[in-house]
Design goal:
The chain is mostly beta strands. The chain is built from one helix and 13 strands. Strand 6 and strand 7 form a beta hairpin.
Length: 191
């Protein structure tokens, strides 16, 4: 079972008036901090459609134990339709570079976090998320330090359902593992 976060804060409070919001500004929408026992997934729901782009920033660790890092599986609006997501990545560990991709999946693989006792950080950008005429493009950069060794990843996801739709919710899953306690996942809107 995962954490589902409804919209809270100034936007949800109904405060109106002359709130100054300059173009290009990052505004915090919601932050999830994983508690004791971990959680399978994090979902940001009821995302306001008032921003140009979205960004998620992660400092995280998964419950996986084999490798120093885990990919982050993304799904939008609860969609797990096979064939709706394509992903690509470029990864390096200081001595070897890797590249790959996958097409026609039921989720997108983007960015990375730590596992096996390592912590990682990741920034994921969601471009034109409110558009109902464009397919959605996501880009991510992340890295893990594994006590002297580590991995850096650049990744992208294309979400292309049969009819383009705005993103109203985002679910993040650490590649089938769980989010460990103290992981922090923060959603921002960009004006």
């Amino acid at each position: 079972m995962g954490i589902v976060l409804p919209l809270v804060g100034v936007s949800a409070s109904g405060i109106s008036g002359h709130l100054f919001t300059p173009t290009g500004k990052y505004e915090s929408i919601q932050t999830a901090t994983v508690t004791s026992g971990g959680t399978a997934s994090i979902t940001f729901s009821s995302i306001p459609q008032t921003y140009t782009h979205l960004q998620i920033r992660i400092l995280g660790q998964s419950g996986g134990t084999t490798y120093p890092s885990d990919g982050i599986q993304l799904s939008f609006n609860g969609s797990s339709t096979s064939g709706d997501y394509d992903s690509h990545y470029l990864q390096g560990n200081g001595s070897t570079a890797y590249a790959g991709g996958r097409t026609s999946w039921g989720d997108g693989l983007s960015g990375m976090i730590g596992r096996n006792g390592n912590w990682g950080s990741c920034v994921i950008d969601f471009l034109d998320y409110t558009s109902t005429t464009k397919q959605k493009t996501v880009r991510a950069i992340g890295g893990v330090d594994a006590n002297g060794s580590g991995v850096v990843t650049l990744a992208s996801v294309l979400w292309h359902p049969s009819s383009p739709t705005a993103i109203t919710s985002i679910t993040l899953d650490p590649n089938g593992n769980s989010w460990n306690q103290y992981s922090v996942i923060a959603l921002y809107g960009i004006r």
